[in-house]
Design brief:
single chain; mainly alpha
């Protein structure tokens, strides 16, 4: 019975790690999108009017 409880606990930790990987990946790509939008805004407001 004790082995079964340890396996359940290990599986629970793995699921928690997977969700934290998903969260960190989401934050990383959200930062990429924000940076891209800032660059596009800069181009639209300062570089394109020069032409």
């Amino acid at each position: 019975m004790r082995d079964r409880d340890e396996n359940v606990e290990i599986e629970h930790r793995e699921k928690k790690t997977d969700s934290s990987k998903v969260a960190s990946t989401f934050i990383k790509y959200a930062a990429y999108v924000v940076i891209l939008l800032i660059v596009l805004w800069f181009l639209a407001n300062y570089i394109l009017p020069m032409f």
